[in-house]
Structure prediction request, 132 residues.
Amino acid sequence: MAKIKLGAAPKHFKKTVKFTMLDGTTGSIEMNYIYRTRKEFGALVDEARAQAVKQAAELETGETFTLAGHLAATDLANADYLLKIANGWDVEADFTHAACEQLGDELPAAIVAIVDGYRLAVTEGSLGNLPL
Prediction:
């Protein structure tokens, strides 16, 4: 059994997340997540929420709501968030903002799996693969 040593957390950790592809098959992506303590994760989520509230307030300027615009903004916000929780993946594309946006646009279930996988790992310590 491994000896516990406090204050020696890794800077990164790898985790494979699984999700259902559009055709019903199972897709998986190995993420290289950035380690955060639970408190640090809480601060990250608070920051993301504040940004979302700010963006929602900006929408109240009288602009006409469009679903296309909303989904594009969601893909943008998700890409921003992915770049804050990870620094790499095993997708056949570089881990860039544009690639994260594209992933959200083409495979939204992957984004949910990546975000949930990170949340579970840093708040509950679940480093195994997530069930579908």
